Amino acid sequence: MKYKFMHLPRLGVGISYKPQFAKDIRKYIKDIDFLEIIAEQLFESNNTQIKLFQELSKLFTIVPHAVSLSLGSVDGINHQASIKLKEIAKKLNSPWVSDHICFTESAGISIGHLSPLPFSMDSVSTLINNFRSLQDTFHVPIILENIAHLFFIPIQEMSEAEFITKIVNSTNCGLLLDVHNLYANCLNHGTDPIGFLNAFPINSIVQLHVSGGSWLQGYYLDTHAAPVPIEVWRLVELILQEVPVRGIVVERDDDINLELLVDDVKKAKILWSRYCK
Ligand SMILES: [Fe+2]
Predict the structure, then answer these.
(1) For the chain, what is the total number of helices (H) and then of strands (E)?
(2) Burial per residue of 190-202, b for 16 or more beta-carbon CB atoms within 10 angstroms, e otherwise
């Protein structure tokens, strides 16, 4: 199947931005191609902070990454968050925005966590309806990310790859494939990452996430607190051989050191320059 997102710009390799990078980020302008910023961090910014982000957006393309739209909620999405996300994307001239395939609130109560959906036809319909109503109001594509989940909710009617394929087939949405989430899920569920990719709609991948994790009590956790493991780089390479993705973001939420993060950016750029000319 043909790649669907040639019309979007090719951003290169970026990082997930943290406020503590503000002082040093300009030093790495040659290494870092773009920034992904947690959208909710932008929602809470005052005018002065927004101006700073607008200044930053003159140096780096900024992609807002939301965690609170709750696209899997049966009682609809978080409208307030969607309005703020749209405003921010316009102010920062972002080429796309993203959120997750999950739910984060129920009956208006925030769960405070990216919670997995049962891979069922009911969840497919909910997500499709929510996504369509949201995308119709946006001026840029909203791309959807696979999450890490330690267990399957018992009502499973299909695999995760089939679940995401059904959503893509009905909405034509773009995907943010978190390769580390995929890797962690496969380790925890005893499944094969290559098998997942073979069943996954890779032609709809707009962006990749990479990060690192650690083992705790027999589970491999997506901690975003370690360098990207070699197995994840191998999967990234396989994907880049097949799909002209528009960007890769290195995520790090804990044990943050911009210099170490840039080490992983440089590794991603070696693959990017090999396959993404
Ligand atoms: Fe991610």
Answers:
(1) 9, 12
(2) eeebeebbeebbb
Q: 244 lies in which domain range?
A: 12-275
Distance from the CA of 71 to the center of ligand 1, in angstroms? Answer: 16
Torsion of CA 180, 184, 189, 190, to 10 degrees: 90
d(CA 128, CA 123): 8
132: domain CATH number? 3.20.20.150
Q: How far is the CA of 23 from the centre of ligand 1 (A)?
A: 24
Question: In this structure, is residue 2 part of a structural domain?
Answer: no
Find the 184 Cα to ligand 1 centroid distance in Å: 12
In tens digits, the chain (277 residues) has pLDDT values of 789 999 999 999 999 999 889 889 999 999 999 999 999 998 988 888 888 899 999 999 999 999 999 999 999 999 999 999 999 999 999 999 999 999 999 888 999 899 999 999 999 999 999 999 999 999 999 999 999 999 888 879 999 999 999 999 999 999 999 999 999 999 999 999 999 999 999 999 999 999 999 999 999 999 998 899 999 999 999 999 999 999 999 999 877 789 889 999 999 999 999 998 6
Q: Pairing relation of β-strands 34-38 and 12-16?
A: parallel
Determine, yes or no, domain membership for 7: no
Residue 12 bridge partners (DSSP): 247
The model's pTM:
0.96
How many domains does the chain fold into?
1
Q: Is residue 4 part of a domain?
A: no
CB 86 within 8 A of CB 139: yes
Q: What angle do CA 167, 171, 173 make, to 5 degrees?
A: 85
In angstroms, what is the span from residue 22 Cα to ligand 1's centroid? 21
Residue 1 lies in a domain: no
